[in-house]
Amino acid sequence: MNPALLRAKLAQRAAQHLQRRRRTVTAIEPGGFVQVDGARLVNFCGNDYLGLASHPALAQALSQCAARSGSGSGASHLVTGHGLEHERLEADLAQFTNRPRALLFSTGYMANLAAITCLAARDSRLVMDRLCHASLIDAARLAGARLRRYPHADAAAAAAALCGAQAGAVLVTDGVFSMDGDLAPLPQLAQAAAAAQACLIVDDAHGLGVMGPSGRGCLEHFGLSLPSVPVLVGTLGKAFGCFGAFIAADADCIEWLLQSARSYIYTTALPQPVAAAARAALALAQQESWRRERVLALTARLRAAAAQLGLPLLPSPSPIQPVVLGDAARAVELSERLFAAGFWVSAIRPPTVPLGSARLRITLSAAHSEPQVDALMEALGRELPRVAA
Ligand SMILES: *Cc1c(COP(=O)(O)O)cnc(C)c1O
Predict the structure, then answer these.
(1) Assessment of whether the complete model's pTM goes beyond 0.85
(2) Which residue from 75, 176, 229, 304 could staple onto 206, CB 3.0 to 4.6 Å apart?
(3) Domain at 25-49+289-386: CATH code
(4) 304 Cβ partners below 8 Å, 6+ apart?
(5) Ligand 1 site: residues with CB under 6 angstroms?
């Protein structure tokens, strides 16, 4: 692209209020506070649902492991980069998800590339919720499968899209939708997949650690397991407060991914200290169930306050509670007003969400307190009417 064209494209983004801007976090403090660009704010837009990201036990596990094994793994898993902490974390994840085997990936993005490119053949039918995460859409493109996207959370439409597919079709959904916070209708999707002999892949990046009676995610919430959901993708960078991702499945499926996934084979293994920290997080998430209970109680509190204020929220049972404004400029303005009032809630705009559905994506964490949630809702009730219609 020539420089003049690049400049014109950037100017167009800015004119449409779609220009993204990074803010620099200079300190993370206990109690959900962060220092951002010199200001102290409550962070209401991260994915640290259980408040584990700054837990000292994770930092300790990380630094102790780094002292033993260094900071980098030095090679890919299939060469010399696979270590004891990886092996242990995979075993812990298999146990946590109640599946025979788990395989670690560096990121959820890469795990999704692997799941779809290895399990959907080039000419097979791939059926996906319209609001699936961008990494799943990119994976579908890379796989070169015949993609059909169905209206959000519409299991009947998913079944119809699978109708007449040859063997080897794949049905893909998020468990908790990342920008809406609602859950996929997994029992009905599992039924549709079974009827079409399709493989169901669930990306539960935002459900694991949070949803289900013991935090095992959306599958536990709905009482589903193998074989009705053969492939589960999870991440370690959200509720588990670390970094990395995994796929949990039966032993043959995992072996096939290990043998063939390019986003597994041709990349450096996750640093072992990160794996050690993730193991500590997984243990804490299970031992300290108050974290899950607390973030869900705060979610209920926020929803009750929103109802009192007459604020429309999406039907989300998860800690992701978006306020849809529609117009990108309004979302940005409201976000800036909240920022000035001490609350960090970023505006989510197209193409991350569909055109005309720009929003504030409020997220809750076990690190938050009740007065913080009350103060956020008070500020929202005050500032929303001031934002130009
Ligand atoms: C965040 C996210 C991913 C990507 O995970 P990373 O580890 O951040 O790359 C994948 N799927 C969904 C649904 C996500 O929200």
Answers:
(1) yes
(2) 176
(3) 3.90.1150.10
(4) none
(5) 107-109, 112, 133, 135, 174, 178, 203, 205-206, 235, 237, 245
